């Protein structure tokens, strides 16, 4: 059982919903990432998505785009991201870490090198936004062989065929994008999400997390009624922007705590 699967299993036994949180590595500063990861855990995050900075993050709204720009201006790339995970693992061996990003950095170093480095530093999986499931079965198999989970996105527009393909090759959990658009946009229609999750679960037996548009405790709690996990990214980045580099760690921990409290209420 992977670390991600074990986390979901343990939470299910406690009748709890997983809290999956996202930050961009290297934002707001090169030395901020590992303290922010620990702050997320201290606030109650169950899984961390660590964004790999990329110049053209096509699925991201302006908030995460700015985070990528700041990280790239700080000179942070995929090899630095591996270093952050290794540093985090020195004091936390239990919280799953998922590397989230785009194909270009992985192709640049090579998929096998990406897998080997992920294993070496203690990462647990990856979300690669622009790797379609039907075109990366070989990569997914190589990830599974290394005991890493390759997590795929599903959207309101996903066909039954695409859902079945994700069920075939995905691992860890499936990530349902609740909105048509980029990260941080719009408001969630929970009734529509519930209907879509019912259709997804006809094929996908993995836990299903819901993200895009979850901005506060009330929304997180509503989504938790129908999903196995809530995923929050843009709202956390906004906390970092508002607090600045000196106040980011405290702000992120406080916000994460507020979401965890809402989920457990």
Summary tags:
11 helices; 265 residues; TIM Barrel; 9-stranded parallel β-sheet; alpha/beta; 50% helix
Number of helices: 11
Residues in helices, as a percent range: 40-55%
Distance between the first and last residues' Cα: 29 Å
Strand content: 5-15%
Radius of gyration computed on alpha carbons: 17 Å
Oligomeric status:
single chain
Uncertain regions spanning at least 5 consecutive residues: 181-185
Description:
This protein has 265 residues and is α/β, with parallel strands linked by helices. It has a domain at 3-152 and 229-260: Aldolase class I (TIM Barrel, Alpha-Beta Barrel). The protein has helices at residues 3-13, 33-43, 62-73, 78-89, 103-109, 111-121, 137-145, 160-169, 190-200, 217-224, 234-264; strands spanning 18-24, 47-51, 97-101, 125-128, 149-151, 153-154, 174-177, 208-211, 229-232. It has a 9-stranded parallel sheet. Helix 5 crosses helix 6. The longest helix has 31 residues, at 234-264. The protein is globular. The two termini are 29 Å apart.
């Amino acid at each position: 059982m992977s670390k991600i699967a074990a986390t979901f299993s343990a939470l299910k036994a406690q009748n709890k919903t997983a809290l999956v949180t996202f930050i961009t590595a290297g934002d707001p500063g090169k030395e901020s990432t590992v303290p922010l990861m620990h702050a997320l855990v201290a606030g109650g995050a169950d899984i961390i998505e660590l964004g790999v900075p990329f110049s053209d993050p096509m699925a991201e709204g302006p908030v995460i785009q700015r985070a990528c720009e700041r990280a790239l201006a700080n000179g942070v790339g995929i090899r630095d991201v591996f270093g952050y995970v290794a540093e985090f693992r020195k004091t936390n061996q239990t919280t799953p870490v998922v590397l989230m990003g785009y194909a270009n950095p992985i192709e640049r170093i090579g998929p096998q090198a990406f897998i080997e480095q992920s294993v070496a530093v203690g990462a647990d999986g990856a979300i690669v936004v622009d790797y379609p499931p039907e075109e990366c079965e070989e990569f997914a198999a190589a990830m599974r062989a290394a005991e890493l989970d390759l997590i795929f996105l599903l959207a309101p527009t996903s066909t039954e065929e695409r859902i079945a393909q994700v069920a075939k090759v995905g691992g860890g959990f499936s990530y349902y994008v609740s909105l048509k658009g980029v990260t941080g946009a719009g408001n969630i229609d929970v009734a529509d999400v519930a209907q879509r999750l019912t259709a997804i679960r006809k094929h996908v037996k993995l836990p299903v997390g819901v993200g895009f548009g979850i901005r506060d405790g009330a929304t997180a709690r509503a989504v938790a009624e129908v999903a196995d996990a809530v995923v929050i990214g843009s709202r956390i980045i906004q906390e970092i922007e508002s607090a600045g580099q000196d106040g980011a760690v405290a702000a992120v921990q406080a916000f994460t705590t507020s979401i965890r409290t809402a989920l457990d209420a």
